[in-house]
Specification:
Radius of gyration: 33 Å
Structural class: mainly alpha
Order of helices and strands: HH
Shape: rod-shaped
Distance between the termini: 106 Å
Number of helices: 2
Number of strands: 0
Number of domains: 1
C-alpha cells in the first residue's frame, strides 16, 4: 500500500471537521472546560479539608472550655463544703 492510498483511506475514515478556526475554537473550549473542572475540584477539596480541620478545632476548644468549667465548679463546691 502506498502513502497516497493510506492518505485516501485515512481521509475517508476521518473527514476534516471544518475550518482550522472551528477546530481551534472547539479545542480551546474543551481545554478551558477541563481546566475549570480541575481547578474547581481542587478548590472544593482544599475548602472541605480546611472546614473539617476548623470544625475539629472548634469542637476540641469547646470540650476544653467545658472541662475547665466543670473543674472550676468541683473546686468551688469542695471549698464551700
Amino acid at each position: 500500500m502506498s502513502l497516497k492510498n493510506a492518505e485516501k483511506i485515512f481521509a475517508s475514515l476521518f473527514p476534516p471537521a471544518g475550518s482550522i478556526t472551528h477546530r481551534l475554537v472547539i479545542s480551546y473550549s474543551l481545554l478551558t472546560l477541563t481546566v475549570l473542572i480541575l481547578v474547581s475540584g481542587l478548590l472544593y477539596w482544599i475548602l472541605a479539608r480546611n472546614f473539617t480541620r476548623e470544625n475539629n478545632q472548634f469542637l476540641a476548644d469547646q470540650i476544653h472550655v467545658k472541662k475547665r468549667a466543670r473543674w472550676a465548679n468541683l473546686i468551688a463546691d469542695r471549698s464551700m463544703g
